[in-house]
């Protein structure tokens, strides 16, 4: 449980700033390994931060709980294993992608439990999107998430503040249930 959300949101903001700062042609030309590592860490750390914040029911609004991200699903064409999980090995059907919206929390779970993770780069060498598949989904699908979509989600979460909270005690659950969490 997160006691105070502000420090977590500040760290999320810092991760978003690093993602934007290092995902430039100049940074990749200067030191590709460092740029990629900073961006990769920003993606993974942000997923953990967001997941922790969302798990604290009263800390995030209903809009944050229901935030959807557009992803594209790609089916594997061969069995994905520890030794065979990279795209250059012809493991995915790149002709039959299916686009849909999924809850941001699901994307966080995929990243936290990722088995497959790789990126797609633009012509200038910057990262355009990332592909992720959890250990559970590895032989079912890889999800493609645009970096711009992930960055928007990060910003939404870091600026989410609950200004009004409605709850009641549920006898059946023997706990309080939040029925409305308004974003301000």
How is the secondary structure organized here?
Blueprint: H1 5-22, H2 25-30, H3 32-55, H4 62-65, E1 68-74, E2 98-103, H5 104-112, E3 114-121, E4 127-134, E5 142-146, H6 147-158, E6 162-170, E7 175-183
Antiparallel strand pairs: 1-2, 1-5, 3-4, 4-5, 6-7
Helix pairs in contact: 1-3, 1-6, 3-5
Distance N terminus to C terminus? 22 Å
Compute the gyration radius: what is it?
18 Å
- Calculate the mean pLDDT score and round it: 91
Number of helices: 6
> Strand order within the widest sheet?
2-1-5-4-3
What's the story with the biggest beta sheet? 5 strands, antiparallel
SSE class: alpha+beta
Contiguous low-pLDDT stretches (5 residues minimum) are none
Number of strands: 7
Question: Percent helix among the residues?
Answer: 25-40%
Binned strand content? 25-35%
H and E string: HHHHEEHEEEHEE
Form type: globular
Number of domains: 1
């Amino acid at each position: 449980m997160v006691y105070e959300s502000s420090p977590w949101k500040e760290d999320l903001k810092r991760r978003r700033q690093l993602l934007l700062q290092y995902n430039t042609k100049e940074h990749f030309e200067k030191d590709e390994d460092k740029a990629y590592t900073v961006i990769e860490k920003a993606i993974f750390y942000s997923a953990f931060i967001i997941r922790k914040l969302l798990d604290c029911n009263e800390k995030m609004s209903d809009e944050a709980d229901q935030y959807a991200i557009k992803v594209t699903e790609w089916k594997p064409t061969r069995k994905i294993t520890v030794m065979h999980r990279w795209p250059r090995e012809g493991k995915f059907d790149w002709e039959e992608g299916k686009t849909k919206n999924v809850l941001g929390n699901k994307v966080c779970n995929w990243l936290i439990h990722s088995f497959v993770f790789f990126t797609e780069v633009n012509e200038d060498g910057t990262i355009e999107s990332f592909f992720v598949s959890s250990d559970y989904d590895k032989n079912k699908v890889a999800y493609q998430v645009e970096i711009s979509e992930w960055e928007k989600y990060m910003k939404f979460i870091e600026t989410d503040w609950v200004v009004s909270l409605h709850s009641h005690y549920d006898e059946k659950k023997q706990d309080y249930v939040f029925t409305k969490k308004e974003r301000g």
